[in-house]
């Protein structure tokens, strides 16, 4: 899990750094964001088919 691993290392604790990382990986097709059905303000980030491969 990218976010759990990165957060635990302490390298991405600054505000916005995790978003930049997710944007970067998503732009390359490895992640996708889907709406969170329980909270319209949030998105769920998951591996895309390419990310799983």
CATH fold category name: Arc Repressor Mutant, subunit A
Instruction: Name the structural class.
Output: alpha+beta
Q: Unreliable segments (pLDDT under 50, ≥5 consecutive)?
A: none
The CATH homologous superfamily corresponds to Winged helix-like DNA-binding domain superfamily/Winged helix DNA-binding domain
Sketch the topology as an H/E string, one letter per element: HHEEH
Strand content: 15-25%
Fraction of helical residues = 40-55%
- How many strand units? 2
Q: What is the rounded Rg?
A: 12 Å
Protein name: MarR family transcriptional regulator
InterPro entries: WH-like_DNA-bd_sf, WH_DNA-bd_sf
Organism: Anaerolinea thermophila (strain DSM 14523 / JCM 11388 / NBRC 100420 / UNI-1)
Can I get a quick summary?
The protein has three helices and two strands, in the order H-H-E-E-H. The protein is of the alpha+beta class and 53 residues long.
Q: What are the key terms here?
A:
single chain, 53 residues, alpha+beta, Arc Repressor Mutant, subunit A, 2 strands, flat
């Amino acid at each position: 899990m990218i976010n759990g691993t990165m957060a635990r290392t302490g390298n991405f604790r600054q505000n916005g750094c995790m978003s930049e990382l997710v944007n970067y990986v998503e732009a390359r097709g490895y992640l996708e964001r889907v709406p969170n059905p329980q909270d319209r303000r949030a998105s769920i980030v998951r591996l895309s088919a390419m990310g799983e491969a």
